[in-house]
Amino acid sequence: MADHPVDEKLPAPKMATTGLQHVAAMYAGVVAPPLIVGAAVGLTPAELTFLTGACLFTAGLATFLQTVGVWKIGARLPFVNGVTFAGVAPMTAIVASTDDKKDALPVIFGAVIVAGLLGFLAAPFFSKAVRFFPPVVTGTVITLIGVSLLPVAFGWAQGASPDADDYGSAVNLGLAAVTLLVVLLLRRFTRGFVKQIAVLLGMVAGTLIAVPFGVTDFSPVADADLIGFPTPFHFGAPQFQLAAILSLCVVMVVSMTESTADMLALGEIVERPADERTIAAGLRADTLGSAIAPLFNGFMCSAFAQNIGLVAMTRIRSRFVVATGGGFLVLMGLCPVAASLIAVVPRPVLGGAGVVLFGSVAASGIQTLAKAGLDKDNNVLVVAVSLAVGVIPISAPEFYHAFPETARIVLDSGISTGCVVAVLLNLVFNHLGRGGREAADVTHPMETGEDLAAPTGKGAGGLLTVRRPGQDRAAATSARSCGSMSW
Question: What is the pTM assigned to this prediction?
Answer without folding.
Answer: 0.66
